[in-house]
Specification:
Bound molecules: pyridoxal-5'-phosphate
Shape: elongated
Strand order of the largest sheet: 1-20-2-11-19-16-17-18-15-12
Radius of gyration: 24 Å
CATH superfamily of the largest domain: Alanine racemase
Helix content: 25-40%
Strand content: 15-25%
Distance between the termini: 13 Å
CATH class of the largest domain: Alpha Beta
Number of strands: 20
């Protein structure tokens, strides 16, 4: 199914694209941000791709299906799609336009100044929220000038915003970030009332929403939401939206859904802690793939990789995949994670090194050099990101967010 699907090819503009064999049946649509690469690569079929660099497939249908699932969990409340940290590994310029195309998504949120500029360059039209302070006042002004909505919490922001507004001759839309108990970022809830009133009183500033982060402690989350509501009640003239819920709360805490919800991980197909498929089906939105670079038969006593953690007890076929922990595949995969090649899965053995992973094929040679392998994806229960995370004993957030941003991306339509 994966191998025959239509794909679009993108590559980060900063990355040099290695020339691949672009053959056969699928059309390649150029996308604004990558059109210069794409235009020379009009056909692509990665079953016959002879490159040995790993690649990531971004699955458009899966992303949009996850938006629907999350929207249903939140009774159709509008979604602020959190696309921080390179869209959870999928690549901002690829995932954000797809998410933006859903009518359920009303804004995109990131936490780094540069990610705002990347989204602007990618042509995102829906509001972009920066849930952090900009790198500098110059960046701050540039972001505002380009319509990025800042999430503010510092004491003196009103003065700065008023000066930007008078330079631009327009009102500035912002969000008020309140710390209700996470103690991470935001204006402390017990000092926020007068600050918010002052911000609201400024004619050149429009406070669109007031929001907070929740700790994912079920009882305390509700207390936090109460604190947020109380802050807003201190400014009766303020007419803004409230939001707090992330993926975890979409699944577990309807009492925190407020006006908008603000999920990230679930949109990308990763279940938050203790969430079940019966509550809402999520589909992994990317595949990490690589091509088998070598197949060998070990003899009894031969060892595999650093530390010789695997010693063959009998003649054993192994396959080497040119993808490793520098690409984001977890070192802990040796704890029992399996890789899909063809219709079968094979266990990772020895050690995951920076650029290589070795799998045990068993007594028979069932795999050939050049076969494509899927290390993460939706195509088999053993390679689901949540399953890999569970077996490797890491967080599913690490699985997605540690994907190396330099890996080439292909968008499956
Ligand atoms: C402020 C904020 N809101 C929402 C999210 C989305 O969280 P999740 O990916 O768990 O849905 C994040 C991500 O960590 C965040 O930092």
């Amino acid at each position: 199914m994966v191998e025959d699907a239509s794909v679009k090819l993108f590559s980060p503009s900063t990355m040099k694209l290695s020339r691949r064999s672009f053959l056969s049946s699928v059309s390649l649509a150029a996308v604004a941000s990558a059109s210069s690469h794409a235009s020379s690569l009009s056909r692509f079929n990665h079953t016959r791709n002879n490159s040995f660099d790993p690649w990531i497939e971004v699955d458009k249908k899966a992303l949009l299906q996850n938006v629907q699932t999350v929207s249903a969990l939140a009774k159709s409340r509008p979604i602020i799609a959190v696309v921080k940290n390179n869209a959870y590994g999928l690549g901002l310029e690829y995932a954000a336009p797809i998410l933006e195309s859903s009518t359920s998504v009303v804004a995109l949120a990131v936490v780094k100044t540069d990610e705002c500029f990347t989204l602007l360059k990618a042509g995102v039209k829906k509001p972009i929220m920066l849930m952090a302070l900009p790198n500098s006042e110059q960046d701050e002004f540039e972001l505002i000038r380009n319509g990025v909505q800042l999430c503010l919490f510092d004491k003196d922001c009103r003065k700065r915003l008023e000066s930007y507004a008078s330079k631009l001759g327009s009102r500035i839309k912002v969000h008020a970030y309140i710390d209700t108990g996470m103690s991470r970022i935001g204006r402390r809830f017990n000092q926020a009332g007068p600050w918010l009133s002052e911000l609201t009183a400024a004619r050149s500033i429009e406070v669109i929403s007031t929001f907070t982060d929740l700790t994912e402690d079920n009882a305390y989350d509700l207390e936090q939401v109460d604190r947020l509501k109380k802050v807003v009640l201190q400014t009766p003239s303020l007419n803004c939206k409230l939001h707090a819920a992330s993926s975890y709360h979409a699944f577990h805490a309807p009492g925190t859904h407020l006006d908008w919800i603000r999920p990230g991980m679930a949109l990308f197909g990763g279940y938050p802690d203790e969430a079940k498929e019966s509550q809402g089906k999520l589909v992994p939105s990317c595949r990490l793939k690589a091509r088998v670079v070598r197949v060998e038969q070990l003899q009894k006593g031969d060892s595999v990789s650093y530390g010789r953690k695997f010693i063959a007890e009998q003649p054993t076929w192994i396959a080497t995949l040119p993808v490793g922990h520098t690409d984001g595949y977890p070192r802990q995969a040796v704890k029992g994670v399996r890789v899909l090649i063809g219709n079968e899965t094979y266990p990772v053995i020895g050690a995951v090194s920076a650029s290589h992973t070795i799998v045990n094929l068993g007594a028979e040679r069932k795999v050939n050099e050049g076969d494509s392998a899927t290390l993460l994806g939706q195509d088999h229960p053993y390679i689901l990101p949540n399953r890999v995370a569970q077996i490797a004993d890491v967080s599913v957030y690490d699985i997605y967010m540690h994907l190396n941003p330099l890996i080439p991306k292909f968008v499956l339509e």
